[in-house]
Structure formats: C-alpha cells, structure tokens
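Re: adenosine-5'-diphosphate structure - here you go.
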Amino acid sequence: MNIVWVSSEAVPYAKTGGLADVSGALPEALAARGHKVDVILPWYPQVTGKLKLKFDSFTGPLGVPFGEKHTEWAQIRTLNAKENLRFHFIEYDRFFDRPKLYDWNGVEYGDNAQRFIFFSRAAMQALLALHLSPDVIHANDWHAALCCVYLRSDLYNGYENFRNARSILSIHNIGYQGVFNKENLYWTGLGWGYFHHNCIEYYDQLNFLKAGVMTAHMVNAVSPTYAQEILSAEYGFGLDPALRNCAYSGRLRGILNGIDVHEWDPVHDKLLPATFSADNISGKNVCRKKLQEYFNLPVRADVPLFATISRLAYQKGLDVQAAALTRLLEAGEDLQFVVVGSGDPGLENWYAHLQERFPGKLAFYRGYAPDSLSHLVEAGADFFAMPSRYEPCGLNQMYSMRYGTLPIVRSTGGLADTVTNFNYQNSDSATGFVFYDLNAEALANTMRWAAAVRRDERAAFDAMRRNAMMRDFSWNNTASQYERMYEDAHR
Ligand code: ADP
Ligand code: GLC
C-alpha cells in the first residue's frame, strides 16, 4: 500500500513524548513489510535543524491556501531514510521556527490553531506537489486531524490523487484535543458549512480531534483497553459520545503500540556501561551501580531501586506518587527512587523538595534526559513506576520489561494490556505489579509489596524478570493489525 503518515513529531527529528517514538518506528516497520511510506512532519529549525540532516531533494515553492483567498508559500525538504521510507518536512518558519514544539515554559503558543491548521493543509498540498496517490492518509492526534476533514471536503475530494485514499485517525492521547475559538475556522478555508456538531463544532468552539473522529474512515486508539475506556464519560474527555458513535458504526479500533526493539535492546545497547540478556543478567548489576553513582545514591545491592521517567503531567499520576513517596520516606522505608522528568512546575518543585529532604534516597533529574541517561535508568533500576490516571498505551513499561526492570503500574489503558500482575502462583507468566485505585496508600503498599518480593521471593522475582525480558513488544507483532485496519477502511 501507499501510506502517508502525518504527525507533528517523530524520533529522531523532534520529540516531546511517545507520539514521536511511534512515528519513528511504525512507519519504518510498515516500510520493512513492503509498503511505500511517506511521513509528513513540520520542519523545526531550532530542533530538527540541530541534526544537520542532508536532504535528498527540495520541492517548492509549495503554495498553501491559508484563510479564504490567500496563499502562503512553504517548501518541502525530503529525506530518503530507507527503502520505501521517506520523510518530508514542511518548512515554514513563521509557524515552526520556535524553541519548543507546542509551548514555551508550559504556556501554549497563542497561534497553535493557525500553526496546525497550516500544517494539515500543507500536508494535503504536499501530497499533490509530490504526486503521491495514497491508499491511506494516517493522521496522528489533533495536530494532523484536519487532514481527515480535508480529504472528505470539496477542497480535495475531487483530485484524482485521492480517488483511492482513506483516512485513519490515531488517538494517542484524548486529553489533548486542539480546542480553539471558532474565529479560527477562517484559516481552514472550510467555511461555516463545517461548523456543526457532526464535524468540527464543539460547544460553540472548534475541536480538531473531534473533527477527525467524525470524518476519518477509521479511528484507532493506541491500546485495546484505551479504545474501550474512551467510550466512557470518565476517560472520554467530552468526546465519548462522538467515539461511541464511531464504535457503533464499526470504525473504532484499539491496536497496542509496539516499541523499537533495536533502539531498546539490552543485548546490544551501546549507551550502557554493560550489556545483558535474560540468560546472563550480570551486566544489569553494573548498570545498577553506575546509576546509583550517577545520582549520588549509596551503592548498595540490597536496597530496592525504583525509577520513573516521565512528562510531569496530571495524566501520569505523579502527584499521587510524590504523596506515596513522602509517606514511605517519612516512615523510614529503606528504598531508593530516581525520578527523571519535567513539565508541571508545581510537581517539579515537589520532587526537588523531596530530593532535598531525603538525600541518598530520592534523586531527581529535572529536565529532559539525554538518551544515555534514560537507557541507564531503564537498565539499572529494579522497578519502574507508572501510576497513571490514564495511559493510552505507555511505552516506558515496555522498555522497562525489555531491560528486566519490573513495572509497577496502575491498571489503565495500555498498562493494563501489557503488564501481567504477580499473584504468587504465576511466576511463569507474571511481569510486574498492578494496582487499581489511584491513591497514595495503594501505590505505597504496592511498592512495599514489590520490594518484599525482591527480598523474600527471589526465585519468583528472577522468573518474572525473565518473563518480562522475553515478551515480544516489537512492531512487527502489531503491524499486521494496522494492515488489516487499512484494508477495512477500503471496504
Ligand atoms: P507520553 O507519550 O504520554 O509521554 P509514553 O510512555 O508513550 O508517554 O512515552 C514517553 C516517552 O518520552 C518515552 O520514550 C520516555 O522515555 C520519554 N520521556 C518522557 N519524559 C522524559 C524525560 N524527562 N527525559 C527523557 N525521556 C523522557
Ligand atoms: C501518548 C500517550 C502514551 C502513548 C503515546 C504513543 O503520548 O500519552 O500513553 O504511549 O502517546 O502512542
């Protein structure tokens, strides 16, 4: 198939979270299976520009209608990454030459509506300029969701290029929908005819993700459990009615994300001080020691070492984790905890404060860690905590399992789909520790329990590590489900 993948971020070019990991790895996995894949991304001079990429071609000027009677001029930079796989960057500095992708110091850029209307429209124009005739236009999250509307609209549905095209919308996180003042409709060029509740209108505002849900041929959530959860008022963030509609008409799928098993591979990881495998885990102890040294924690083998790497966002439940840690550390619990993260300033300060209060026990890296550090944390820790309020898929629990680091997770979304809870009878299949109610006590007790299993049930603990490391989370495992969804979109 000819597949076009539209996303605002992709590893290694620009990343704020898991969307980038997926956009870097899934197109590659599909290309390796023989599909022709073209990825469309914005060109961020201050971010992607640092990589000093060598481009294979430039296409331009690219005319992008913007507003009702106006055209802006952009350029496409194309990189032939691998066989069947190309990346096309939309260059338009007024909107994308910014120090960060979406915000500055946590405050969203005021022109995000215009920026991503422009990006979606430019993506459609780029397909024409590059003479592509896609079978599938796969839009990701609200940033690209308008592509689904454009494809159905009079602006594009008459083109021969799009005769066989179907649109797919992947929802990586329904907490971010792209809701803006309705005046911005002007920039889309769609006209007020689209401003109704079966399209882009949402409580008298614009909602880009909703527009995508209503117009895509198929909608995909990034894990089976999340695809169910978002049908409820609790997890649907106001889009549950639209999604129930989508589910009833058979347009909703839930396909579990994979991970890049080459980038995250304890056997060949060049970023680690020592490599290891399920059969020979000794290198993990070297990593553990390095990790303790790096964070000035006492180098001890007997203490349980927990870690978290995360955006510090409400979604992640890290406020509850800070409360649980306060409780445990005040009670004098013997543990070490490494937190790597940035985001919400209040949470950043809370962890910084805990580090000051409990030196030698809690270590906090404030910021976005370089890859070498995140790999060391994944490899060196005993346990990886993800107490998420909601988690569409979550990648870190899978990275952790691959490195024999047992996840401690709240049962939600992709966490529920990927971690098998220990119950003392299933050490041949368990891979981690699961709790259900999101409160400090539940998390603190689960951490105590995990530490006790490590200390007192060594055989079970070692077996769980092995189970975790043997799990196959490769994209190749799930790519066929995408193929099926693409085919179904043509039925
Ligand atoms: P989300 O996309 O919601 O942030 P995921 O678990 O899908 O959650 O993906 C998070 C990705 O971002 C992982 O690759 C994780 O390692 C990375 N990440 C998040 N915060 C940081 C940080 N402060 N430093 C390094 N990597 C981070
Ligand atoms: C989002 C979600 C995360 C998911 C990622 C990739 O950022 O928060 O759970 O793994 O997208 O799909």
